[in-house]
Amino acid sequence: xxxxxxxxxxxxxxxxxxxxxxxxxxxxxxxxxxxxxxxxxxxxxxxxxxxxxxxxxxxxxxxxxxxxxxxxxxxxxxxxxxxxxxxxxxxxxxxxxxxxxxxxxxxxxxxxxxxxxxxxxxxxxxxxxxxxxxxxxxxxxxxxxxxxxxxxxxxxxxxxxxxxxxxxxxxxxxxxxxxxxxxxxxxxxxxxxxxxxxxxxxxxxxxxxxxxxxxxxxxxxxxxxxxxxxxxxxxxxxxxxxxxxxxxxxxxxxxxxxxxxxxxxxxxxxxxxxxxxxxxxxxxxxxxxxxxx
Length: 293
What we know:
two-stranded antiparallel ribbon, disordered C terminus, 3% strand
């Protein structure tokens, strides 16, 4: 029982982390058509902000990291991406790849290559169903999932979200209806950047900080978006759950190296088998049966 509870809580923690990353990636790809390969490096930025501002209270550090993320996202969209949209996906992908390199080199120049760490603001463990689990990881799991739920509520229950979904579905028609496309594009990239930086800031006490740490998070986040269906906003959340569950299961029974090998192999097979992504809707025959009843 103890091991099962620990497994569920660890999976939930990993799910919250990947859900933030995948939602940010999905938003940017859906609205901008940009494959943001610097997304993992933005996680690194959030973690290093927490380390650099160590004397500052933890909640304030998170707030400052979020503000920096908005500024960084708006600046990157204005200075880099805005000039490249017309040149196609390859141009924006290479630009984001270059931005990731710049961020890594800048972090190494400032902090060095020596691994760093961030102290958790909450020490100790909390007993859940008889199983002790680090209290901070419980708090981070709750905060991460709350942010994801809040983001989905904004997307599906507000006028701003309606405009965003309209812009993703048909940008030209949205512009005709008075939705400012340039503002929506810049805001979406800023939000995507914010989610990645926030994920790094929240998880920083559980991570070993190095300039290249973000590269390890990029592939799972991309797989989460692909598994959950391209262009969907809720799909990346479903994909993040699949990725977190699969990763936790493999690491529970196998060594780290073998688990990582099988993890990526399984995801490649899953995407090859379901290139359109997973479906979480009821099949049509089930709907017809309910209507007849």
